[in-house]
Amino acid sequence: MTATAADVRSILSIQAHFVPSAAAKKQSTSQAKKPEGISRELYSLIGPSAPSLAAQLQKPQLKQKPRLGSSAVRWEWRKFRNGARGDSLELGHWVKATADPDTEYPFSKYNVQTAHFIYSQDEYSKHLEVDPEWTKDETDYLFNLVREYDQRWHIISDRYDYPGGPHRVMEDLKERFCNVCRRLVRDRPWAGDEASRVQLISTFMFDKERELIRKRYLANLDNRTPREAEEEEALYLEVKRIEQNERKFKRDREELLRTLAGIDSGLPDIVEDELPTILFDSKKKKKGGLDADSPSTPVSAAPPKQRPQPSPRNPVYDALHCITHIDLPVTTPATKAAHQPSFLRTYKLPVPKAAVVPKISQTLAEINISYNRLVMPTEGNVARLNALIDATLPLVETKRVLDKVEYDIKVLKERLNVRSSAPVEEEAGGVVDAADGEAIEGTEEGRAQSVVSTRSTRSRKQRRSVSVSSVDTTGAGTSRPPPKRQRRN
Amino acid sequence: MVNYGGDEVSALVLDIGSSSLRAGYAGDDTPKVISPTSYGYIKALDDGDFSMADINDTEVAPKPKLAKSFIGQSGPSVWRSGMEVANPIKGGLINDFGPIHALVEHAIVNVMGCNPSEHPVLVTEPSWNTVENRERMAEIMFEEFQVPAFYISNTGVLNTFAAGKGSALVIDVGQDMASVTPVVDGFVLRKGLVYSSLPSLIHSGAHRILTQPTHTRRGIDLFPHQLIANKSPVEPNSPPKFTLREDRLTGTTNSWRQWYEAREVDEWLQTVGGVLESGWNDQAAASRPPKQYEFPTGYNTWFGAERYYVGEQFFYHSPQMSASNHSLPKTIPALISESLRSYDIELRQVLMGNVVLTGGGSLFSGFNDRLAAELGRTFPHAKIHAPGNPTERRYGGWLGGSILASLGTFHQLWISKEEWQEHGKGIVTQRCK
């Protein structure tokens, strides 16, 4: 092994007289200077300080010589007084001898007292004697505790032990304190502007009932057994899955309707939320971890959702704009399920029985009305159409009977003609005749009635045809299968 | 210096526990003095020649003139003819203030070499300390040691500070007492404070296991090594071969003997005792490897399931056991749930996320894991802070005191001698909330 001169030099820590390579030099000079205001340690972490080759190529430096010239910083044991103390206790600590002995103790500035309310006997009897549950002594006691523990309510309620007083929970104490403070702010003369006063009052707002409800929710949440929590989780996932299926179904249906009939389904929109992530993530998530969407997340105290107040009704305005109100039963909760979605009234048109559909459409076609198409399906028109179809049904029925009877008559007449040529069986035929005559009479009467009713219906229709004027428009309309409606409630 | 809020005024921190007394400078990370709280004394009717006492620096003349007491590392542990051993602490509280002066003086003056009149002193107390006790402590400090300033703070709060927290549920398992202390913003919630003498029960259970004969071995003699003249090695589980020091047997007092037996039991507990991490299970206990242990008599054997049976008492009492003894100390889970019941539901989440495990008793092998398992069953988000460093775990109270007394903002809270003289005892309760 041969040692180079450089090795020897470095072993002996002799400064080398070789010239560092130009690149190294360049790099070392190009290093950015530390900006002001950042400590050296921090800068070395965040600054352009990737350990470069330059550091290693730098010439070896000798150990720094101790600076013997300047004297060491002197520290001395000094007594001091703490401005935050009320007495003359003198403690000692080490400080630099150069430090100014007259400066205030640096930690005394942290001794801040919070402002607190004091009321006089007069004020108490004037403004504060409203709650019969609280005596002045107990209120004093409460205020002392609040001051002593700087409004740390958990501690206050822990230490609260007013001799002879009733048991009070934290919310009682808070409520009383806030009530008193609010009153004091309100009733005292106020130096500042009104806004700051209102703001101050608002800081003393405390809703005890709501707080108690919140605590109860919390307790319920906390008292679930692990099994219940698991079940809840499972149910939640199940609900999500069902919702997803429903959404899928709705989408398919919508698509189908759009392609086949070119219309929207009118099904209610289900609020799209990031379901897939929940479904798949919650399985991956650590068991017991709190995920944001899981039901085990403590719910913040939101008051139960109020049903929106229905707008006041104006019959005249409603009539003019064809507005109808659908009243939900009061007992149904304001949930998605109970919601009646908006729909095209066309879909609520009455559908006659499949067997009589052709007959009815044929009958109505005589008066230029399509049973499943209304130009202006207002509620009134729909109701009338409904009535019309209801009326058409017996008409069609009667016509069917009529046709049958006419056919029977025809057959019997044929038979009669045959019989007259053979008078041997006259007697027996007479019996039949009598019965037939009766039947004919009955049908004649029924026919007359039915004609009248048909006529009256027709005339009614024609009178109304301006408004109802149903037009059998397209072939598509008739070929379309009767819309299947899904009951949502 | 100011950056970290510290300002050291060379305060002393004094932490008196059931097993040991800790003293040291505020700002240090370990106490300078750790000496047993138990002390030896001789009812000195014939105050004559004690050659050993002369050698011993720790000998102090206590207040009762009839007795001679022996304090410190070589106090009670050294055999002395006719020496009794006593402990001033009972149920975590100072029961007998007689030897307290001597104990404190030994620690501060003799071992640390300090003059107590030059240093403010912070003393710790258990959370269930009585008002009389803390006032008496203040009196001793001001009147007998002439300290310039004094403060008394409870170990629950200090353990919270030692863990770097402001609010925590402190589970402190000491030598005599186990306690659960809810601390919020540096204040103890007194209604949620519960404690029991569970460690004593564990100890007596272990004592019973060792001394009572079983079908595989006979009862074990717990002679301390001071009473054994010689012994020879024997095979495991075979009868020991040893001779006792007959000369010492007559001079040995009952209390010294008991104290030393307790030490042997503790040592055994600490060496082989353990807790099963996930609840008692006969098979699991049997499947663990047994451990060998040798007693001072030379008797040695393997301990299998027994060593887990002892620790199980921390967490579970069998129904027949609790039926036979109604005043049985509560188990740790029972203590925790009782504590949790007594305060606001809102705090549960906070406190269960900040459980601090401390005290020498919690160093029981497997204790931490078992506690985590027990808590995790009902509180999935429970988080246990348990220092891995045994010193920190055992002297957490002292460490918290050391932190507190070296804070610049704390110095306004000291009760000064002036205030003591002016206001009298009442100021202690008023200042140390």
From TrEMBL, chain A:
GO terms for cellular component: NuA4 histone acetyltransferase complex; Swr1 complex. GO terms for molecular function: transcription corepressor activity. This is SWR1-complex protein 4. The keyword Nucleus applies. The keyword Lipid biosynthesis does not apply. It comes from the Eukaryota. SUPFAM superfamilies: Homeodomain-like. Residues 134-181 form the Myb-like domain. Component of the SWR1 complex which mediates the ATP-dependent exchange of histone H2A for the H2A variant HZT1 leading to transcriptional regulation of selected genes by chromatin remodeling. Component of the NuA4 histone acetyltransferase complex which is involved in transcriptional activation of selected genes principally by acetylation of nucleosomal histone H4 and H2A. The NuA4 complex is also involved in DNA repair. Belongs to the SWC4 family. PROSITE patterns: MYB_LIKE (PS50090). It comes from Guyanagaster necrorhizus. GO terms for biological process: chromatin remodeling; DNA repair; negative regulation of transcription by RNA polymerase II. Residues 465-479 have a biased composition (Low complexity).
TrEMBL record, chain B:
This is Actin-like protein Arp4p. It comes from the Eukaryota. InterPro entries: Actin, Actin/actin-like_CS, ATPase_NBD. SMART domains: ACTIN. Pfam families: Actin. PANTHER family: ACTIN (PTHR11937). Belongs to the actin family.
